[in-house]
Design goal:
Elements: H1 3-20, H2 26-48, H3 55-58
Length: 60
């Protein structure tokens, strides 16, 4: 796999991991939402620059 595709997949994996986290208390929930927002922003910026989509989104 090429390094550019690996970066796309890494950003996707980071976002997926953060979204799977289920915090138990409200303070942790706020932190988890902020982390998810940051991870999404990084993936969104990546795609807006014309970089490839993560592999899970390229499956036909």
């Amino acid at each position: 796999m090429n390094p550019i595709q690996e970066q796309a997949d890494s950003l996707f994996d980071e976002l997926s991991s953060v979204l799977r986290h289920a915090p138990e208390d409200p303070a942790q929930a706020v932190q988890a939402l902020r982390a998810a927002d940051r991870a999404f922003d990084r993936l969104h910026a990546w795609m807006c620059e014309g970089n490839p989509l993560p592999q899970p989104w390229n499956r036909r």
